[in-house]
């Protein structure tokens, strides 16, 4: 039995789901293919994902392929209650999610999704897989395989695999080019700044924006912040990524130095305490703190709370002001959670089209191939990534060259010299 906030919101949810679907032509094509081929017939899928209009497109595609789906939220602040209602009332999925639920409710919903006894699991941050391996080991024997679609989740899965703790194969959907290159770079880059602007209505032109982490997400953020007229400072622990940022013209500093300069701070590292008490102690009055990494540990919110003599909650939507003893005010967005989903709507549907196409095709591949895979972290087959890119280009009316037979022979021969 689903647990959602308000079933009467279904009509509004359907309208928004259909709007997003217009920008997801690749997933629509796969849905039509799944409806004809039924690659997931009779399978149960449990998913822990952001419950947004774009995710609804994936759920409908899995259902078209014959799967029954139970869905829990991967972040309490990202759940769209109207989308959840539409999935239950109009599309026949089981959904366990309410916007703004507390930590206890969050994990209760994950447990409810697992109670369906899934054959496959789809995760966004590894909380569902972690729960299976800690609290619900009784269900491990029935789970055939899974997918993970975040950098943070893949890191956790690799740690589990190294320790021999992972009990079934999981595919790192996050690591496909059509996911991390576009979802992380273009999606996170745009939607994070969208969330910050919606929450604060600040002008980014002329501001110093400090971006912690220069992976695909950080790179996308830096490009877009610069495009809006910001001076961008990057902090990094990886010499290669720091060099990349430097060669692209961004200032690179340790956070201890950047903390004094910044007007807006955005964390996208996947690690904890990236902005800590020492950094908070030297920040400017009015500095804005936002996180776009998966978990709410990158900004030390507890330290910020301890330092504050007064807190003004909700001065704007998803905006809290912490007043320090010396009178400085630091502004925390979305409680330190994912600002692009809590204060905005997450990635544009056109970006999620590719990510969820990867996810859907990988599920179909797993249904046929899981028995041959070991309990480890596996890559998505290259042909799936290529097919998604091909379909996306076709939907955009973009044509590319094809190799001639002579070119194919040349590339596959070592005997032809200069």
From TrEMBL:
Its EC number is 3.13.2.1. CDD domains: SAHH (cd00401). Residues 184-346 form the S-adenosyl-L-homocysteine hydrolase NAD binding domain. Pfam families: AdoHcyase (PF05221), AdoHcyase_NAD (PF00670). It comes from the Bacteria. GO terms for cellular component: cytosol. It is an enzyme of class 3 (hydrolase). It catalyses: S-adenosyl-L-homocysteine + H2O = L-homocysteine + adenosine. Pathway: Amino-acid biosynthesis; L-homocysteine biosynthesis; L-homocysteine from S-adenosyl-L-homocysteine: step 1/1. SUPFAM superfamilies: Formate/glycerate dehydrogenase catalytic domain-like (SSF52283), NAD(P)-binding Rossmann-fold domains (SSF51735). The keyword Transcription regulation does not apply. Its cofactor is NAD(+). NAD(+) binds at residues 150-152, 184, 213-220, 236, 271, 292-294, 340, 347. One of its GO terms (molecular function) is adenosylhomocysteinase activity. It is found in: Cytoplasm. Binds 1 NAD(+) per subunit. Keywords: Cytoplasm, Hydrolase, NAD, One-carbon metabolism. InterPro entries: Adenosylhomocyst_ase-like_sf, Adenosylhomocysteinase-like, Ado_hCys_hydrolase_NAD-bd, NAD(P)-bd_dom_sf, S-Ado-L-homoCys_hydrolase_CS. Substrate binds at residues 52, 124, 179, 183. PANTHER family: ADENOSYLHOMOCYSTEINASE (PTHR23420:SF0). May play a key role in the regulation of the intracellular concentration of adenosylhomocysteine. Belongs to the adenosylhomocysteinase family. NCBIfam families: ahcY, PRK05476.2-3. This is Adenosylhomocysteinase. It comes from Actinomadura luteofluorescens.
């Amino acid at each position: 039995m689903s647990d959602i906030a308000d079933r009467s919101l279904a009509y509004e949810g359907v309208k928004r789901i259909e709007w997003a679907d217009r920008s997801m032509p690749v997933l629509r094509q796969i849905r039509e293919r799944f409806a004809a081929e039924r690659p997931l017939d009779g399978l149960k899928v449990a998913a822990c994902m952001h419950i947004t209009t774009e995710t609804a497109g994936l759920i409908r595609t899995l259902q078209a392929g014959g799967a029954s789906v139970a869905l829990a939220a991967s972040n309490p602040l990202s759940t769209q209650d109207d989308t959840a209602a539409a999935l239950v009332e109009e599309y026949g999925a089981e959904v366990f999610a309410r916007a703004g639920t507390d930590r206890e409710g969050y994990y209760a919903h994950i447990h409810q999704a697992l109670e369906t006894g899934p054959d496959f699991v789809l995760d966004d941050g590894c909380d569902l897989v972690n729960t299976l391996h800690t609290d619900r080991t009784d269900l491990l024997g029935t789970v055939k395989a899974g997918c993970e679609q975040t950098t943070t989740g893949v890191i956790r899965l690799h740690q589990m695999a190294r320790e021999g703790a992972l009990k079934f194969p999981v595919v790192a959907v996050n690591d496909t080019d059509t996911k991390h290159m576009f979802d992380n770079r273009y999606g996170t880059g745009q939607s994070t700044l969208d969330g910050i602007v919606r929450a604060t209505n600040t002008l980014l032109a002329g501001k110093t924006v400090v971006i912690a982490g220069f992976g695909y997400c950080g790179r996308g953020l830096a490009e877009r912040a610069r495009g809006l007229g910001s001076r961008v400072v990057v902090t990094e622990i990886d010499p290669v990524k720091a060099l990349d940022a430097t060669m692209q013209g961004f200032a690179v500093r340790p956070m201890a130095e950047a903390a004094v300069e910044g007007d807006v701070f955005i964390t996208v590292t996947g690690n904890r305490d990236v902005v800590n008490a020492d950094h908070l102690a030297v920040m400017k009055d009015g500095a804005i703190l936002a996180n776009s990494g998966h978990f709410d540990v990158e900004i030390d919110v507890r330290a910020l709370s301890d330092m504050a003599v007064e807190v003004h909650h909700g001065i704007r939507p998803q905006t809290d002001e912490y007043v320090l003893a010396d009178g400085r005010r630091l502004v925390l967005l979305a409680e330190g959670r994912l600002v692009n989903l809590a204060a905005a709507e997450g990635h544009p549907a056109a970006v999620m089209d590719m990510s969820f196409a990867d996810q859907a095709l990988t599920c179909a591949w797993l249904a046929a191939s899981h028995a041959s895979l070991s309990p480890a972290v596996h890559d998505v087959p290259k042909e799936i990534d290529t097919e998604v890119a091909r379909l996306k280009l076709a939907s955009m009316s973009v044509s590319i060259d094809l190799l001639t037979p002579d070119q194919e022979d040349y590339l596959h021969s070592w005997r032809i010299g200069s």
